Each structure stands twice: as C-alpha cells, then as structure tokens.
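Course assignment 3, question 2. Fill in each field.
Student: A.L.
Task: Predict the tertiary structure for the chain below.
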Amino acid sequence: MVPQRQCEFFLLRYVPDAVKDEFVNIGVVMLEAEAGFADIRLTRDWRRVRCLDPGVDVEMLEAVEREIRARLTDVQDRDALVRKLEDSLSNLIQLSPAKGCLTDDPRKEIEEIASMYLETKRVGEKREASGRRRIYGQMRAAFEQAGVWPHMRQGIAVEQYTHKGDPLKIDCGYRPNGDIKLFQAISLAADVNVAKVLAFSYPQIAASILRQENATAQLTAVVEANMNIEDEGVSFAYKILEQSGIRVVAVGQMQQIAEIARKELRL
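Answer field:
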C-alpha cells in the first residue's frame, strides 16, 4: 500500500473591496507537513474574477504567482513560510485558513483541488446539480412524510462553523439527546469530487460545533441507490467520506432514517 502523505492547502482569495469583503478564489498553495512538497496553482480562467472586478490587473496577479513560486523553492520552515506569504500578499489577495488532506500523490492532489475550487462551472456540473436535487427531494419527502421536516434546521450555513464566505450549506439537521445529526444530499453518479469537498470541510465543522454548541456532530451523506462500490471512483468517494467520519447511506434508506428521527424528536 502506498504510504499517505500529510499535506495542507491554502486558497488564495482575490478581495478587490475590503469593505464589501467579497472574494473569489484564484489560487491554491499546497505544503507537505515535513516540507517535502510545496507548489502553487493559479487559475487560468479569469471569468469569475472579472465578474467581481471588471478592471482586475491579471498581469499583477500572475506576478504574485511567480513571487510565491520562488519562495516555495526553499521550504525549510513551514510556519515561517506561511508568515512570509501572509506578509508578502497585498490587501487585494488573502490567504485562507489551512485545510489538511492525506494523499499518496501531492502533485495530483493539488491539480484536483485546483479543479474543485478554481474552475468555472460547466455543463457537466449542471448534471450534478440535477442529480443532487433529485436526492434532496427524496430525502426531504421522507422527512416530511414522517412529520419531521418542520422541526429540523434547514439550509445550515457552514460559515458559522468555518470562516466567513464559506458557500457550503448543509441541507438539514436536528438535535436529539445532545447530539446534532446533519444530512447532506450528494450525487456521486455525476461527480465523485463532491465527496472530497465535503470530507475536507467536515472535520472543522464538527470541531466548531463541539466548541460552540457543546454537541457532537454526526453527518450523513445521502447518495444514489444502487451505486457500484466496485467502481474505483465510487469506492474512493465512500472511503474518503468514511475516513472523515461521515456516514454514507443510499437514498432508499431515508424512510427508516426519517422514522428514527421522528422517534428521537418524540413527534
């Protein structure tokens, strides 16, 4: 088995107006814990940036990329490097909080992360949204049939647990017996990378819920029925979700789960 390497990544955010505090992700910096790997990827698709700031100076941003890449060539002290990066960036560019990841190939990992966070949504992603909507609809219908839905928190903004501007929202959840049970519909049939996004975010969400609400979080990812576990991509998605402490269930199990929720909420 190929040994896993502990890495972390930071997003480079373009913030043209500090007062509005609006930003768009423009780059990814990845560092290995033992200072073995360090690299940067900058977006080559500036459409989202120009939507936020039509007058963006792309040449300046590309110069920042070259400067950061030069600093990454001599990684002796990870903390010192991060401080240098933060000090060298202008007010227009900010470094996000670090997110950890395990990988056997950091070069491949940074490409996948860049694809997830930097690329403009395309037609294929519309299919993913459609698949997710179907799963969400079935999940919600099960909770409504059990009379649970009106008693649940819905559209839970993750930024209250991570950092301001985090766009992720958890579909729904409830709190029985001191625990918080959360549910998120995802479509693995359309794009297994959605599992990685959720897996990256969840540990920080769970830690913040424990700290802020003194409750243990339990997140369930609801996926399509009859997924082929033998498929390499699907198997990877299940593995990374479960490694992050996320339970994975098929949407066909929602009636039983909704009935458990009804009993736990004493409805």
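Instructor remarks: Residues 123-145 form the longest helix (23 residues). Residues 134 and 211 are 34 Å apart (CA to CA).
Grade: pending
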